[in-house]
Amino acid sequence: MEQNIKGLLSNYKPRLDKKETISLEETSQYCHKVLSSEQSMDKVLNTLCQYLTRAFGNYLSPGNLSFFEEMEINFVELLDQIIYEYRENLTYDQTIKEYIIADLYSRLSLHVEAFNDPTLYKKNLPHRQLYPDDLAIIRDMKMEDMVPFLIEEWEEMTNLQKSSMKTLLYFAIGNFHTFKNIYEKTYSNYIKAAAILGMKYDIENAPIGYNELKLINSDYMRNFKLKEVFENPLPESPGEKVFTILHIERAISMMPDDKSYLWILKVLSQLPEKEFKSSWLPEIYNSMSNIFLNLQNEQIIKLVSKKEHILDFIKLVDFLPRNIFNRITGKIDELGRKFHLQIASELEDKKLNIHKTNSNIFNYICRNSKRII
Length: 373
Fold this sequence. Notes:
Blueprint (H helix, E strand, L loop, with lengths): L4 H5 L14 H12 L5 H16 L5 H4 L4 H18 L6 H23 L1 H7 L7 H9 L6 H6 L8 H9 L6 H10 L3 H13 L7 H5 L5 H5 L14 H14 L6 H13 L10 H13 L3 H8 L2 H13 L2 H13 L1 H13 L11 H10 L4
């Protein structure tokens, strides 16, 4: 896909048209009404698909809708999946179709319950299957009273332990020994790294916490400075990188200074150069998306205005798979025309070797160039 970016951008105008919008409150209330109608699961989802396509079209993207909270993102992506399954993907055999319908219905129900009646949601959670969506809901809605349930169910949630560990990090105070026990029992280096971070968060409340940390076989994690992050060396091993990413994700609002942002950019731009276990990547991608969505726009613009940092920005954005990149397009929209032109100029100068067909940022710039008011 060889296109002259500067030529395209000669037609570029900022996106002044009203962005596609969706009220999650109204949509969740409509979903609640349909779920209460005593129809079959199939009919409920089909009815919802028709409602969504009439109101919003055949495709929903959290980036286009500018939703930045993970709970909201998951809900929008679920609605988009319902549209897809009922309008596009009609070739499954009956057994697979029934499984998909049951999964979509269950996830829709838990989201609607959380939006409309958090008390009922918390009451029902221990009595049903736990989904990844639940762990984002518990984090975003600050449901600290659900932490004992997550700890109690730890051994049973094998496939959700990485995501569950991230949720526990948001409620770390008072749970030093929980993290210590997890660290000692797990064989996963990802979970070990997260458990060390949890112990560091709660170390002041653990009488022998500092002595416990001396036993940890990682100088980097043991000596990591949680506040002045820019004073830390860059992480090297996969475990160190996970430890660092999880801390940035949790504490990004407390890192508003230029030095921290530069350090964060260097950390994130290194990730494409490191091989991770495939089982780690979904959580890493998710954390990178959450970090980017919570960066301050002014700080991003200021940082990337320096030419030597633009390539790092492009590398980290292009590292994301397309579905995760679609979460952050609303954030990139907010960075404005001057920012887009800087990125386009760097791409045109060909200082970064990218495969243009697969490049997130190249395709984003090309799409924006054609928005002529």
